[in-house]
Write a structure and sequence with these properties.
single chain, 142 residues, 3 helices, 30% strand
């Protein structure tokens, strides 16, 4: 039938094998200004319909520290999504449950109509891994 519409941009700190139809920004850190410049260039002035973040830091084994590190990555993805998404867009962001989970959820609720905590079926039941699915971006108030 119809040809797919839209642009998919993938970013990873590790090399990524080419994927047909995907703009790849590999061997780079999402949190750097240089990566943001590359990402904005690849977006060509368009707004995002979806931002999906599976970012996770290298685990130290210190649960509280690992949690705070992944929360900072989640906020990086959230800041990008809030600045670059179209109204109605969604954000899916990875997290390890911990002390700052409720604060992140509350912050997401400021910008999205619905925020839901989801746990992947592939995740062990005793794992702290979870995601927030934030739907219905409200846009930024001027």
């Amino acid at each position: 039938c119809g040809k797919p519409v839209g642009t998919v941009i993938a970013i990873d700190r590790l090399p990524i094998y080419p994927i047909e139809g995907v703009t790849i920004i590999g061997n780079t850190d999402f949190t750097t200004a240089a990566t943001l410049e590359k990402l904005l260039s690849a977006m060509k002035g368009r707004r995002a319909d979806a931002v999906v973040s599976d970012m996770a830091p290298n685990a130290t084994g210190v649960r509280a520290m690992d949690h705070e590190n992944i929360v900072q990555l989640a906020y990086s993805a959230t800041r990008f999504a809030v600045q670059m998404s179209r109204v109605g867009a969604f954000l899916l962001v990875k997290l390890w449950d911990g002390a700052s989970t409720i604060a992140l959820e509350r912050d997401l609720m400021r910008f999205y109509d619905k925020v839901k905590a989801v746990k992947p079926m592939a995740s062990r039941s005793d794992s702290a891994e979870m995601f927030f699915l934030a739907r219905g971006f409200k846009g930024l108030q001027s």
